Amino acid sequence: MRGKPTSAKTILFLCIACFLAGTLFTGQMWTSPSSNHESAVLLARHDVNHKRKVIEGESGDVMEEVTKAHQAIKSLDKAISTLGMELTASKTSQITGGQPLKQHAASNHSIQKAFVVIGINTAFSSKRRRDSIRETWLPKGNKLKELEKEKGIVVRFMIGHSTTKGSILDKSIDEEDAEHKDFLRLDHVEGYHELSSKTRLFFSTVTSLWDADFYVKVDDDIHVNLGMLASTLAKYRSRPRVYIGCMKSGPVLYQKGVKYHEAEYWKFGEEGNKYFRHATGQLYAISRDLADYISINWPILHRYANEDVSLGAWLLGLEVEHIDERSMCCGTPPGVLFFEADCEWKAKAGNVCVASYDWKCSGICKSVERMKDIHKACGEGDGAVWNVQI
User: Fold this and answer.
1) Structure pTM?
2) Pick from 19, 148, 151, 331: most CB atoms within 10 A?
3) Quick one: which of 245, 233, 242 has its CA closest to 321?
4) CB under 8 Å to 232, separation ≥6 — which residues?
């Protein structure tokens, strides 16, 4: 249909009406920018006030949550470290045909959980030393088993075999073990210059028998307070890759014929140089992940003349926390003091030492004769280890 043409005035009127209607509509639908800003400020103030109330009213809860989160991160770091070691083990088994892992696989059905496994390094000729330890700081018989069961503290004298297996020396250890049941027999030929190999094998063996948080090596001529050792190690339980002991940096002895002569002295620089920092050999502890590392990589771990230097070298290039624990090397009366007061003075003050010995002898001088006196003067008390919180 065709209508009459619309006039220009009518069209102009309709346009003005539509414009006014549109302005009115949009004004009702949208708020001004200033009102948006005011709303945002009000919301921000409310949020700040709310947070202030939370912080002021529940600060204790917040700190507790932060502490829990920190501990969780530490535990996660340790778990990741363990998984990394297991991955390395898997790769190593493919390269070497699985030999380093056979011992683990064979004993998985009987592996025992523990807090710490302590290996006391001993020799065929050291029966009197062992007896002096049994009569002082090491529980005997059923008490040794109870300590293992109730506290997860495993203690064994570690020893290998003679050059001829089944010799009179080996039989004497068999008889002693049948009486006391406190030996760990290693597939190792005993010899003074084989201590690095023995230490390497010790860690490889104990990780296949006990799943522990820590593994400790002790000499058989020092005094140890097991309770203090356990409580000290417990402080570092959540940390990954820890290496604990009295750290030192002694001279590299290049002169032939002297005790502790280092045949490979040239590797440590010019004559007169010192070793890198490492724990003294009388007593040290490493965490599970580091013991696994040694067990996995034992075929390519180089052995130096001194066993404590060898261990320090194995761990030097790793992300390892070196913990210098001076209570592990207290002096014994009337021995010469080293760094701090001796074990007797500290015991009287309530600061019982973890381990005590004479530095001039690298152990307790005449330990068989003096062990009882030192235990009486510096011991923590027979019941201390049973009351320690792990």
Assistant:
1) 0.74
2) 331
3) 242
4) 244, 325, 327, 328, 354
Q: Is the pLDDT of residue 89 over 80?
A: no
Summarised one tens digit per residue, pLDDT across range 180-196 is: 999 999 999 998 778 99
Q: Is residue 7 part of a domain?
A: no
Q: Can you read off the two tokens belonging to residue 345?
A: 């003075």
DSSP 277-334: PEEEEEEEEEEHHHHHHHHHHGGG----SSHHHHHHHHHHTSS-EEEE-GGGSB--TT
Angle between helices 59-96 and 33-57 (to 10 degrees): 80
What pLDDT digit, counting tens, does each position of 351-372 carry? 999 999 998 899 999 999 999 9
Q: Is residue 295 part of a domain?
A: yes
Number of domains forming the structure of the chain:
1
Average pLDDT, integer, range 130-153: 97
Tell me which residue range forms the domain holding 382. Answer: 75-387
Instruction: Answer yes or no: is 5 within a domain.
Output: no
Close Cβ partners of 215 (under 8 Å, ≥ 6 residues apart)? 116, 117, 119, 203, 206, 207, 285, 286, 288, 291
Residue 12 in any domain: the answer is no
Rounded to a whole number of angstroms, the CA Rg of the chain reads 35
Instruction: Of 65-69, 189-193, 236-240, 376-380, give the lowest mean pLDDT range.
Output: 65-69
Confidence of residue 166 (pLDDT cuts 50, 70, 90): confident
Q: What is the pLDDT of residues 248-269, one digit of tens each?
A: 999 999 888 888 899 999 999 8
Q: What is the DSSP letter of 339?
A: S
- The sheet carrying 242-248 orders its strands as 183-189, 153-161, 112-121, 210-219, 278-287, 242-248, 321-324
3-class SS at 161?
strand
Query: CA-to-CA distance for 203 and 104, rounded, in angstroms?
Result: 12
Number of helices and strands in the chain (H, E): 14, 9
